[in-house]
Amino acid sequence: MSSVQKIFKMKITKIREELKNKKIESFLISNLNNIWYVTGFSASFAKLFITKNEVILVSDSRYSVSAKQLCDDLEIQYKEIHSDKNFWNTFCAHYEIKKLGIEAEHITLSAFNNIQKQFTNIDFIETKNIVENMRIKKSKEEIEILRQCAEIGDVCLKKVVESFAEGVTEKELAWIFEKSAREFFGASGLSFDTIVAFAENSASPHHESSNKKLEINTPILIDCGVRYKNYCSDLTRCFWFGEKKGEEYENWKEVYEIVKNAQQLGIEKMKKGIKISESEKSARTYFASQHRDHKKYFGHSFGHGVGIDIHELPHVSAKNETEIYEAGMVVTAEPGLYFSDNSQKINFGIRIEDLLFISDETGEAEFLSGFKK
Fold first, then answer.
1. Residue 285: CA atoms inside 13 Å, Cβ hemisphere, count?
2. One fold for 3-135 and 140-367
3. Residue 291 burial class via C-beta count within 10 angstroms: exposed 0-12, middle 13-18, buried 19 and up
4. Is the dihedral of CA 241, 338, 289, 279 positive or negative?
5. Rounded distance, CA 89 to CA 83, Å?
6. Which of 73, 76, 223, 346 would disulfide-bridge 195, Cβ 3.0–4.6 Å?
């Protein structure tokens, strides 16, 4: 048995164990990223049908050649289907399904209502995160790919910083990042649209890069990431463009150091066995000690899981009181303070974000991103 077959069979076994615990006899995976994670098959239309004894990959004629080859390698079945309607008519009749687990978060309400009306003899069981929970803990191979993602992101951001100049626009710098990632470093794309934010635009956490031109003595926030071998990176850095003196710079530098310290305190809690909620709680406690209203100026969570999706489990939030850090988790640490009301005579935002993994050897968080802070 090849290593690919072993990994695939291990994942299918875990899924079947979970289905058995939930008393579900068959399971339909419709999330394309989950299908890729389990099988390695990538397509714009696909389904993976799992029963007690069979695994069937479903797609259409556009992907039949690659799908058939993959299924031969994995020793599973392939069925060519032309549409969702064709799938339900064929499979529900042929396999005499009585209970079918579906990924509730990846099917529209209208589609769910239609299949319920059409197949009244089937008990549809809504499932949540069966595959996503498996994806939380990354293998050594996955962590190595994510390390490569982060390294590409670091180098591409360096290209952007080298392009800082009066008159350059946010959009132009965003394009330099994307072009570098694709042309020079082999990335297949971006994890998300690159955020380049000058001055007051940096106070908007999800600002869309605009035609705003860079002026001297301006704060800059850049949030960027690349997609490489179907995995994502995520990195945020802040810069001051201009003379490092004067009241405006000193105000910016003060907030920058506060956010940097808050991030470090949160990362120190990223240890195997510690509650995930402790990272954000540490950052917020520190913000409060520095007389910064974290409830008003820090409006998002401390971080999130990263992998095939840019945002995936676990939730690195103060609200996540049930989960603990485990070896193999890949997460971001990204506290921020955003001042958009000029109440403190400042109008900018600072966010510092790194990609880390919980080491199996030390039990502590280790950096994947290495761009200087």
1. 10
2. no
3. exposed
4. negative
5. 10
6. 223
Fold of 3-135: Creatine Amidinohydrolase; Chain A, domain 1 (3.40.350)
Q: By the 8 A CB rule, do 127 and 102 touch?
A: yes
Q: Tell me what the mean pLDDT of segment 171-196 comes to.
A: 94
> What single DSSP character describes residue 302?
S
Amino acid at 215: E
Residues 6+ apart with CB under 8 A from 10: none
| Model pTM score | 0.94
Nearest to 191 by CA among 160, 152, 232: 232
Question: What residue segments make up the domains of the chain, in order of their start?
Answer: 3-135, 140-367
Q: CA-CA distance, 159 to 149, in Å (whole number)?
A: 16
pLDDT at 256: 98
What's 140-367's CATH class? Answer: alpha beta
φ and ψ of 238, to 5 deg = -120, 145
pLDDT of residue 246: 92
Quick check: 240 and 201 in contact, CB under 8 A?
no
- Supply 79's token pair: 């069925």
Pair of tokens at residue 62: 């556009």
Take residue 92 and report the two structure tokens written for it: 């529900």
Q: Which of 367, 129, 38, 42 is nearest to 233 (CA)?
A: 367
For residue 308, is pLDDT > 90?
Answer: yes
221 and 206 in contact (C-beta within 8 Å)? no
Dihedral sign computed on CA atoms, order 373, 139, 66, 91: negative
Residue 56 has pLDDT above 80, yes or no: yes
CA dihedral 35, 38, 40, 46 (to 10 degrees): -20
